[in-house]
Amino acid sequence: MTANVPTLSLRSGDGTIEIPQLGFGTWEIPDEEVTDCVLAALKAGYRSIDTAAFYGNEEGVGRALRQTEVPREDLFLTTKVWNDAQGFDSTLAAMDDSLRKLGTDHVDLYLIHWPTPAKDAYVDTWKALLKLRDEGKAKAVGVCNFKEHHLQRLSEETGEMPAVNQIEVHPYLTQAKLREFNRAHDIVTEDWSPLGARLDIIHDPVIGSIANAVEKTPAQVILRWHLQIGSVVIPRSTNPSRIEQNFDLFDFELSDEQVQAIDGLDEGKRSGPDPDEFNVGA
Ligand code: A2P
Fold it and tell me: Which one is catalytic: 46, 55, 122, 172?
């Protein structure tokens, strides 16, 4: 499975499961477009697909899963509970809805999409995720957009840390401190908006000069940096040749100096909301 893509181990109840370090993201890809995009990604070699109830494209992802010849057991499928469904019983119902739309009896990873402080329901939501994992509806469970204080609270109130924390990470927001906290607690960091497209990082001169030096595109340099800092990375594209390009990351390496030069671009600049202030759907 997953050809030449390295994997990382995730805590999964009593054991561990492997997550490919490179996956395909589907945020903002409309349901009617996503089937072709996922099929293009599977053809290019991706075996991990990331969706969410909020993306409104789980049915389209499900169609791709039915159309592909890649068997379900070779795929790593992630979805997320949206803010409006947070709470114990509503999360259990949201999972059944996602599984029905995806046309599968389990996901590999189920995530809380945002902490949503105005709702203050993420601890009960987390308890529901632990139950879903124990029932086998999700092999591993985790969160997105959690800061240290949210993670600490989960641990204090339930005794269990998430297996994954999916957060905004790119060269202008390297999140070194939070990634280190994750690592120290055996939480795999997954990087969303990896290319920082809204901040136009692809045209940063430092990225450009490294791209020239390694004879790769700026996007490939940025994605390679994510792999080398130890994250799972889930680039998204609707363009088949860019989908392929973003998978072609395993025949070159950045030097330590090049990784450090990219680390040095950090400006603490978010392109998305601050998780302490994001309450859409609360
Ligand atoms: P497109 O779908 O036209 O390829 P982010 O990582 O910040 O979420 O960025 C996603 C955006 O980056 C998408 O809009 C996508 O546009 C664009 N993109 C994806 N791969 C590449 C690439 N290899 N080169 C340039 N732009 C890319």
Answer: 55
